[in-house]
């Protein structure tokens, strides 16, 4: 498994993945996504109330997509973005 780290210093370890970490820092108290809708796991397992999902991975990816702000600033006020083991940003942003 790749060594996934966040720019804030978080390191993937044990059963806490970097995806879990992002969900933790980006999910707002009221579960409202950047699209203005509330996204919560609904009554059907592994589906969001908006209908997205289908598997644990898809649901996580969906939550990350709707909760991650464009500026990647988490609820703690810190910027969180994936970096490679070498400390390079994992996702290139051509506008920066
Ligand atoms: Zn949703
Ligand atoms: Zn982080």
What's the arrangement of secondary structure elements?
Blueprint: E1 5-6, H1 18-26, H2 56-67, E2 82-83
Antiparallel strand pairs: 1-2
This protein binds zinc ion (2 copies).
Descriptive labels:
4% strand, 96 residues, binds zinc ion
Structure description:
This protein is globular. The protein has 96 residues and is mainly α. Helix 1 packs across helix 2. It starts with a strand and ends in a 13-residue tail after the last strand. Helix content is 22%, strand content 4%. The structure holds zinc ion (ZN) (2 copies). One zinc ion binds at residues 6, 8, 10, 21, 25, 80.
Compact summary:
The protein is mainly alpha-helical. It has two helices and two strands; from the N terminus they run βααβ.
Assembly type: single chain
**Helical segment tally?**
2
What's the helix-strand series? EHHE
Structural class: mainly alpha
DSSP strand tally: 2
State which percent range the strand residues make up. under 5%
Low-confidence sequence ranges: none
User: Biggest sheet, strands in spatial order?
Assistant: 1-2
Question: Into which percent range does the helicity of residues fall?
Answer: 10-25%
Bound molecules: zinc ion
Instruction: Give me the Rg, rounded.
Output: 14 Å
Largest sheet: 2 strands, antiparallel
- Mean of residue pLDDT? 88
Distance between the termini: 29 Å
Q: Which overall shape is indicated by the principal axes computed on the Cα atoms?
A: globular
């Amino acid at each position: 498994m790749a060594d996934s780290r966040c720019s804030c210093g978080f390191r993937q370890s044990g059963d806490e993945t970097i995806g879990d970490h992002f969900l933790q820092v980006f999910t707002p108290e009221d579960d409202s996504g950047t699209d203005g809708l509330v996204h919560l796991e609904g009554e059907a397992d592994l589906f969001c109330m908006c209908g997205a999902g289908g598997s644990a991975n898809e649901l996580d990816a969906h939550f990350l997509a709707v909760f991650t702000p464009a500026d990647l600033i988490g609820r703690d006020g810190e910027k969180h973005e994936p970096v490679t083991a070498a400390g390079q940003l994992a996702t290139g942003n051509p506008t920066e």
